[in-house]
Amino acid sequence: MVVASRANYARIKTAMRAIDDHPDLELQVVAGASLVLERFGNAIDVLEADGFRPDAIVRMIIEGETPTTMAKSTGLGLLELPTVFENLQPDAVVTIADRFETLATAVAAAYMNLPLIHTQGGEVSGSIDESVRHAVTKLAHVHFPATELSRRRVIAMGEDAAHVHNVGCPSIDLVAQADLGDPRSALAELNARGVGAEIDPDKPYLLMMQHPVTTEYGESLDQINETLEGVARLGMQALVFWPNVDAGSDHVAKGMRVFRDRGEAKGFHFFRNLPPELFAKLLAHTACMVGNSSSGLREGAFLGTPVVTVGTRQQNREHARNVLRTGHGADEIADAIREQVRNGRYERDELFGDGTAGLQIAEQLALPLPPAQKQLSYAVEDLLAEVSE
Amino acid sequence: MVVASRANYARIKTAMRAIDDHPDLELQVVAGASLVLERFGNAIDVLEADGFRPDAIVRMIIEGETPTTMAKSTGLGLLELPTVFENLQPDAVVTIADRFETLATAVAAAYMNLPLIHTQGGEVSGSIDESVRHAVTKLAHVHFPATELSRRRVIAMGEDAAHVHNVGCPSIDLVAQADLGDPRSALAELNARGVGAEIDPDKPYLLMMQHPVTTEYGESLDQINETLEGVARLGMQALVFWPNVDAGSDHVAKGMRVFRDRGEAKGFHFFRNLPPELFAKLLAHTACMVGNSSSGLREGAFLGTPVVTVGTRQQNREHARNVLRTGHGADEIADAIREQVRNGRYERDELFGDGTAGLQIAEQLALPLPPAQKQLSYAVEDLLAEVSE
Amino acid sequence: MVVASRANYARIKTAMRAIDDHPDLELQVVAGASLVLERFGNAIDVLEADGFRPDAIVRMIIEGETPTTMAKSTGLGLLELPTVFENLQPDAVVTIADRFETLATAVAAAYMNLPLIHTQGGEVSGSIDESVRHAVTKLAHVHFPATELSRRRVIAMGEDAAHVHNVGCPSIDLVAQADLGDPRSALAELNARGVGAEIDPDKPYLLMMQHPVTTEYGESLDQINETLEGVARLGMQALVFWPNVDAGSDHVAKGMRVFRDRGEAKGFHFFRNLPPELFAKLLAHTACMVGNSSSGLREGAFLGTPVVTVGTRQQNREHARNVLRTGHGADEIADAIREQVRNGRYERDELFGDGTAGLQIAEQLALPLPPAQKQLSYAVEDLLAEVSE
Amino acid sequence: MVVASRANYARIKTAMRAIDDHPDLELQVVAGASLVLERFGNAIDVLEADGFRPDAIVRMIIEGETPTTMAKSTGLGLLELPTVFENLQPDAVVTIADRFETLATAVAAAYMNLPLIHTQGGEVSGSIDESVRHAVTKLAHVHFPATELSRRRVIAMGEDAAHVHNVGCPSIDLVAQADLGDPRSALAELNARGVGAEIDPDKPYLLMMQHPVTTEYGESLDQINETLEGVARLGMQALVFWPNVDAGSDHVAKGMRVFRDRGEAKGFHFFRNLPPELFAKLLAHTACMVGNSSSGLREGAFLGTPVVTVGTRQQNREHARNVLRTGHGADEIADAIREQVRNGRYERDELFGDGTAGLQIAEQLALPLPPAQKQLSYAVEDLLAEVSE
């Protein structure tokens, strides 16, 4: 189980808990990448507060946050992880979703003949994540996609249907289990965290989370400026998150700092990260979530949160009715937010799971694992004739 | 163009030549991995003798040849290659086939938003190469599979059919262009290369080339012993090649050394590597090729060479009528060789190309390249309904 | 010439200029470590604005800033630099002073049989810099210590006196050449840089620069707090610099941020870095410089700047009369600052050079270099009998 | 305790045993570099057969054996060792002598504030080892030089005399404890090891061990050829060792292989490595040892072995009367061997210790260790005035 970021953690936590609780399974945790960096809020503390002690820590992020350092950091991870796996001798390795460092985990495990378990394969999005996700699928032995469509895509790519299980996304489990009641005391407490304007717990608020798009490196600064301006036009209070470690993060962070230093971030409160349960409560009650984080599509669907998705980062990702797309202009962003605020909450949609993903994953992992040697499955071989025009 | 082994070179040489000759293309060569190691015959000398000067050299092989060092060497390559790409600023990166270090090239290029060109995707084989090949496919932007079936498989995995071209394998070009006439003077000259018994140019000879199977690490020593013994039983002279750098190579090499030191390698002559044209001539005239190298399947099909393929390394790879499969026992190997020697040469089969692969690749690369942002193609989306049972 | 931080650059710039101008010498520049990081003000921009174009960029800082990542970053530098040296083929390599990554440059050059030139050897300080500096001396072939006492120490350590030259410190050249006149317009312009309180150009100001002490990792946060509080007690305006990349920097930076967010940084203006000439002007006119940067001892001696040095980082470093030492308590720090402010400017002291270091370095490098093979010098052999008690 | 080669092991084994046996000390063993490579005889097996189980294995040798890969391998070691130290949490780190990878251990320990213990400092030799050894001295906290002259040199370099202890070399302990009686049965058994001519246990034999000189990279092939030829002229049987991993090893090994394949190695038997006790017995009874290994100078002095030292590798190393130096010509080498064979055994000389080094090291390490913060010692400060001319 290699956990590499706060986002990773939210999407695997209930599976970790279920594995840890399962009589036939033993959990080992490797904490790496931005999870162990102070600059990203040391999300590892949240993990430890939840009772998970990392069996190894992997420091692999080379400073710079350019496409070059993103590749080199993956290389560094791939130098470090084999030693970790040699020491821990796991029976299988779990890797999560599609961040760039995921591929280091996947290659290390596959090359060392360790069965690789992959969650959230088969999704279609944009950014380099798109390629990373499918490459990991081709290295993985057991797949836990989060939707029915994703399950079918993983099989279509040639994976053996017997080892592809649509269990939903563990992040939905968190939301399903969380206390989502009145957020006012939570909001009041937030004033002691992060920096920026005082939050008024009695007023509606926007949530904003925008990450750089690595394939549009160089445009990140403009993009964050437009979104910040669009949000500011609403004149509402806003809870704003710093971006993930990725090529372009420096530009996003800089845009946010400059915007704030210019005094334009009126009513904006800035956070590095929050515990997943607290985040779920904020998501359940926000007037609208804005940006390009997938949590709006995923947990947002289950919670019926009104979401405005900006730009290409989630462009082809499946979503429910709660999501409205826009381009990068401040005007269109502001318009979309207004429409969503006016609409209010949507109906629950179980597109990304019903809240039992973690338990299903643990149960599957307790069954015998497939052999190290993979093969393109026959299901696809049967389709080949039809592909040919 | 990242070339990492003598095998790589044979499978890309005519494309390199065609790119170099094309008025609209400029060729840059990165030489890496075993290509630059004395222990593997410094195949880079062959490349330079052909007039290709490497623009950069990447030293990335960590000693040990275990699954752990195979993963770590890939990591080291992934630390080195981004710097190389940053210096050379290529418009596109070509990576070849499926050896473990190929994935370092693929990840570096994809993360740095450089269009990735992949040759020989879509094949089905065995070993870790199987997973590496398909993972590279999911990172690549333009594909040059070597057979029609492979082309269809790449498309079925979700790649855009507009960028998947069955051009055949450039190694066939070499064979098609080579002077394959009387091998006697070539054989006579071989006595000055390599070590072992004197070669008699007037007698028939076997060719043997057996690499370790990384997913069967630990069994490599037994496997090579059985094959050596099987070959020895024929009592014919044999040209035997040392293995590639891979987890298990040390065991294969050791088995060969011990066999030779015990005096059992009667009539065996050992080589590290040979120029591709010379190898083609030997393949065209051998009484039978034995082992698990794919050249028997590939160039062998075009040349009609009788081939005995041992074990799982090529187990699901497409092949023509010239190939006979066996397990790992010395007896069954000896029987199969006898049968093939008796049969003699087969008819030419253009399964792996007609000898124009290099030219076709250069022509395609001179056309506009697809954008860095990849997407699962619509062709597959249409198939999804049918996959669902 | 490997330049790795803004401090590095200030201490070598005039030598770079003199080498570039010398008819028999060619300058190559490798920019690495914190010099190329946005988080540290991208000091490389200053270097390029001065007309120096880096021939290679080395990204080597692994995030974390713990003793572990400091060691690993040096390892990463040592993986990267040999490739750079192989590409650039320099006749000699210059490395500067004593930051941790300096050792990567020194080891790479020494192992590759490139004559290593080292500036500022033989100084005695504290922190891990102490060991790094002397280890580099033992790998270097030509030494440019900055004081007479340092010259004698380098020789005592067994270096050949013929290759040890006291030229003074190039940072003094900068100060000697700088326009140090009225700082008011410079101060006024500073309001557009950095963040924090408005600077009043007509009032006296303090300069504060405090780096973590790597061998006291864990105490950095307390230490910065005491100094911030000590400075605040003076009630004067203060120009405060963020720390270098080092184990503990995160703690220092955090202390500074928290202090500022608590509203205690009244009259404090924060900077990442400034061009060396501007910094010289500020140093020439400050009421007192506080912290543990060596620039107070070095340029401060030449300029007669009143300096308060806190803690152990400079504890045994040579200094002139302008320096007053204190421990880490806010009270004693405040007292020492008051005493220095009262005293005012000191007389010029040429302890660290007379402003011609850069020219002297270039002239020496144009002479024949010593061979790669080093040897403990005979001068020390003669002393050995006396050492024995 | 980081052990990185078979030579390392022989020079620390008795100290390992004494530490392991000491009631107040706990031994941890890190096995790295060539110690864990099959190509170098997997010396780790000898270590394990002696009852030492490695707590961690570090794979750090990048293939190539050029000065570039030697530097890069050190960098890789410096990426790996901090993780190992973080996991093992040692109270102190012991590093041995002067091979290139030693510096990785030294830097990792020093940067991580772990007291560094260094054996065999203060010696004067040649090759890059010379610089490595003194650089490690400047990073180390406790020193165990092997001779009185070395002790004084370490102190002269500025180390605190209280932490510099002349204990002799642990390799002498092995020799002092070994059964050195009649070698005939040992010689007879050697025929089952290594390759080459049959050894006749009743006849006198030469020992040959020649390593590449890294600062003379490029001349290694010529040098080994001359020595092989010089040895062959004696017409005696010879036990010949393959070289260490170093820049140039490939050339030395190639020279040896070609010499053997040409049939000139008459009476030569080739080994990769031997258990230290067996080697001691061979050294005690050889007619003459030839080459540039330091064991001839060291154990040879204690045993009175006639030794011929070739070239610069040991050129300034202390030695007793048993050593005769020559240049690289086959003629002068043959002459020197003849003279030494004629002379026969020398008197015992305890220059490198009396056989109690291991015990003395363990006893010192059980005492309180010096603090992480080092300082140039006052002993040297007192000498400085005299150094100044």
From TrEMBL, chains A, B, C, D:
Q: A single Pfam family, by name?
A: Epimerase_2
UniProt keyword terms in alphabetical order: Glycosidase, Hydrolase
The record, for PANTHER family, names: UDP-N-ACETYLGLUCOSAMINE 2-EPIMERASE
Record carries keyword Hydrolase: yes
Tell me a GO biological process for this protein.
Answer: UDP-N-acetylglucosamine metabolic process
Entry protein name:
UDP-N-acetylglucosamine 2-epimerase
**What's the Enzyme Commission number for this chain?**
3.2.1.183
Q: Mind telling me which InterPro entries this protein's record contains? A: UDP-GlcNAc_Epase, UDP_GlcNAc_Epimerase_2_dom, WecB-like
